[in-house]
Amino acid sequence: MTYDAIIIGAGISGLYQLHRLRGLGMSVRVFESGTGVGGTWYWNRYPGARFDSESYSYGYSFSQELLDEWDWTEHFSPQPKTLEYLNFVADKLDLRRDITFNAKVTAAHWREETRDWRVTLEDGSSHSARFVITAIGPLSAPVWPRIPGIEDFKGFSCHTARFPKEPVDFTGKRVAVIGTGATGVQTIQEVAKTAGTLTVFQRTPNWTAPLHNGPISKQEMAEIRTRYPEILERCRETFACFLHTPDPRGTFEVTPEEREAKWEQLYGSKGFGMWQGNFRDILTDRKANALLSDFVARKIRERVKDPATAEKLIPKNHGFGTRRVPLETKYLEVYNQPNVSLVDIQSTPIEKITPTGLRVGGKDYAFDIIIYATGFDAITGSFDRIDIQGVDGLKLKDKWKGGPKTYLGVQVEGFPNLFMVMGPHTALGNIPRSIEYNVDWVTGVIKHMRAHGLTRAECTPEGVRDWTEHVKALGEGLLSNEIDSWMTGINRNLDGKSERIIARYSGSAPAYRARCDAVAASGYREMRLA
Ligand SMILES: Cc1cc2nc3c(=O)[nH]c(=O)nc-3n(C[C@H](O)[C@H](O)[C@H](O)COP(=O)(O)OP(=O)(O)OC[C@H]3O[C@@H](n4cnc5c(N)ncnc54)[C@H](O)[C@@H]3O)c2cc1C
Fold first, then answer.
1. What's the 456 CA to ligand 1 centre distance in angstroms?
2. Alpha-carbon distance 17 to 446, whole Å?
3. What is the pTM of this model?
4. Which of 107, 256, 369, 407 is 20 to 30 A from 121 in CA distance terms?
């Protein structure tokens, strides 16, 4: 079939992109490998999955009707409710008729003669479109650990991003969780409530902060609704589109008492404040970061009764906030339960998975359930899984060897008419806010082209060079770029992911938007439109 545009992915990005391109009167098809809409919130059905963004700061903002008609029920919405919300959006905007589910895109090849893309699906069918928009997610390609024998286990095992639709009953079961990133933390604190025994296998402890979730009553929701303009305005102004924004003061510009009081207040308040609303220099000044890390370490020692376990839970190889900070609800207290144990696999790695459990340091552990909370091939992973070929058969994977090179995080030289929503080098933060901006910007270029009878859009080598250098320069001096994590492209469970790269734009969202707005205001003169 031939379309004006093909969108890959039906998460928050793909759904909104479909709505916007339809608004231009275009014929659009979305291909989605899952069986329903929702992306992240469709796939991540693991126990305890929920937002770390405040729910009312995360939902779509473009439609007053959606804002008026949807009630959030918790400050940090659990996955089932968010999935319900995205289904509500899909129904309200009648999006499903243009989405093909169970449709995994395996290849996209540019054809210069017809100035269009040929998109191939896993079932062998192919489709063409002038424009392809990738909406394939920064965290959507799950990664299993590299442990021999995974397929030998006879009990139930599952990656957190591939949990079954039917609930899994942990009551009385012997459960293992491998991984203690944001997903691992959420899973562990939930599974510990019912499991017979829970054994956590931890390679790298992560700094965490309390989430302080709570229900939203009807009355409170009505009040939040009246504040939507103010909430969304705040998200527009802040560094990373969260409700939280850094304190303009430096850590050492206040007295020790003021500093302690500020940290107590942040530790005791909702959401990402401890990470995103802290003193301005905690992620750049080593001494400030060390002091903050000491504060959080103290909290861990206070909350975890066994001193040896507390020490195991305190990160030693990175400072607070230099990796993605998982938010938790009584996570640390889980380790005070008699049925929970923590195994350090940094010093003694897992040797293998056996038919009955795990072998670590020559010792066999028996389990009924193994949960792999081992995360994703982040940011570029979902691109690597599609054979994307541009002008003269140039492969995107080759173009991005050594790290992605992009123009504003939306285009790549040599790949005309291919636009990325939430691609590498774009502003992330509280992601839907950035998604809406990205989608609107891409829609603006396409609208402009259609209005002027143009059929080919490509960025220039200079544009890519300048943006990529700018993104690299922004990362200089950031403590997070000196640390191995998915944010620096490191994944020890994957080949070719052992060198740090800059895949993430670390400037402010307002600065990103100002740069992109200027390009649009100049009639996209920086791009080659023909
Ligand atoms: C557990 C978890 C919690 C999170 N919490 C937050 C939070 O609190 N705040 C926040 O801002 N962000 C959070 N995120 C990030 C989250 O990914 C984004 O907020 C947002 O959902 C991204 O939407 P998206 O549409 O860009 O991508 P996704 O939601 O990842 O959707 C991408 C879609 O593309 C599909 N796809 C990929 N490749 C192909 C292919 N080859 N063919 C067909 N379909 C394909 C996938 O199946 C998927 O449905 C979280 C992520 C995870 C995993």
1. 28
2. 12
3. 0.96
4. 407
